[in-house]
Amino acid sequence: MHMSSPRILVLDGSLGFSIVAIVEERDGAPVCIAEDYLYDQPLLQRITNLIPDQAARTALTAVVVGNGPGSYSGARVAASAAAGIAAALALPLRECASDRALWQAVQRSFSIALGTRESLEVSESGSVVVAREAASSHLAQEESRGVVACALVREAGPAAAHVTLRYPAPARGSEAG
Is 0.90 topped by the overall pTM? Predict the structure, then answer.
């Protein structure tokens, strides 16, 4: 009897656009077998595009989500969707530091927009918030083609009960005063 490869739903919204992909582990290495590139569609529609029926949902063995830092709203939406899907399908939920996985994927400095004035600058040494005009080039949607999804799976930790979002600065208005 042939055992199918572990099939993982991967979500990350920290880039300002969402990564929605299916990754299989083959011979111990992650391979992206499908990614939804319809960035203008709502996240849940994009997920439905990849897992449209019960057979596709049954084939999943885990859910991996990037927990930021980056776009806080995007990370929250992806984390909520990942937690809900994992709970509904009784799948393990694993999380991953988006910036570290992305660095491993592209091996160059890049930035992620954090609104109109700031960017998250990601480099080998870590991530810092910088003024938009001081930021390096942004990570392009085209660069995400499966590479980021595989990096998230490689770097994901063990199963977690919840997702802990990472944000590079205190939420606006939370500063002690």
Answer: no
